[in-house]
């Protein structure tokens, strides 16, 4: 009886909300209507299909070329969205007024449902407490201690790939192997246990499967995550257990798959936390022998004051957050770099030459020695500049504000303005890719992949733009208090893998055309099978 009433009530409330939203947005004018931008491509979805298309960075480039660095877009039912790549505006969004331009509600609600109260789903003091507790985990000193693990896992991968090429070149899915290695590195470094051993074994831990399938499945639920879920949570239409019953009865297979993924990730994370807590209680929290991230976090948390200490739920939430973020983005970036090296064999040869020269002296270069490889560094920086694993981030204005601009823009009525009025709750899209390849910042060759640009001083325009990114004058890892906390970990992991693999192996493109879905976290795929990411490459023993 209760279930049937709720199944009638929830759709009725959603329908009423949609009708009011549509009327309000179509009848009344909006302050952002004076900002130039493209017409809505759909009455229902506005420009969202273009924004979240597999080739979305190409769309962002076209917007920048036609409308400049500030554009008005349309979302669901003519919702106005501000699309911003202006450097001065970004300084205010990510640094000077980041308390105004917070993560969007749909981002926070979605990540709360998937991971729990972790770094990706919290704001304000709660987020600052978590970040403060996690900073020691990602210190440079700790990165140095992790290097042997990076090498050990990567050499395991190298041995397997060399065995495959014993009788000549072979085609293999490098995304699968890179993901497996990245997961094993983060599970050993992060949790102190092996979850994804780099072997030929076809079997896979359910937790690993859940993390791998999270991104492709979530792409198919984007509108639900962005519009329906925040509404349901905001107005508390039903208790979580009842909402789960309703969602399980809806004829939406992807939603059911996502529920299974979340259940698996949560259950395994709780088990890992419980086991780690037991281990630390047995040896004592003062014992510093266990160097994995989770042990360090739990020791620091035990020593913290009551005001800074994280709850058990907060610590559990960091586990899957760490595993997902460290695996998906790193394997995406590495896949792109190997693909680029296959497309540009001359760069691959030059990089291999640098690696082999260093390898004559150091079999496993330490943190500082690896950082000194200038061409390896240039290849990584240029790849992360032009092909950010995450091409778009969103912020939401928590109150009315004015966003200053580097250069004035002309409004639809012909007036020139130096700042944009941003009403409360406005969604702001920041196209990372458009910032990273802006010709006004990077010069006329900004759309070209040229590692050599990093071997000489960058143009003055790059430094003058004062891009608020935490890494190399680009927005790939964003900036401010929500910058990627593990970007140094990811950078060194990529460099170790490239150092070890390129010394022994040659990577070339196979016969199948590789496409890239750059909506969300960029992933390669073949044909029309976007839900099954793969990167088939022809590998052989390097001469």
From TrEMBL:
Heme binds at residue 484. Keywords: Heme, Iron, Membrane, Metal-binding, Monooxygenase, Oxidoreductase, Transmembrane, Transmembrane helix. It is found in: Membrane. Its cofactor is heme. Pathway: Secondary metabolite biosynthesis; terpenoid biosynthesis. The keyword Metal-binding applies. GO terms for molecular function: heme binding; iron ion binding; monooxygenase activity; oxidoreductase activity, acting on paired donors, with incorporation or reduction of molecular oxygen. One of its GO terms (cellular component) is membrane. Signal peptide: none annotated. InterPro entries: Cyt_P450, Cyt_P450_E_grp-I, Cyt_P450_sf, Cytochrome_P450_monoxygenase. Belongs to the cytochrome P450 family. This is Cytochrome P450. The lineage of its organism: Eukaryota, Fungi, Dikarya, Basidiomycota, Agaricomycotina.
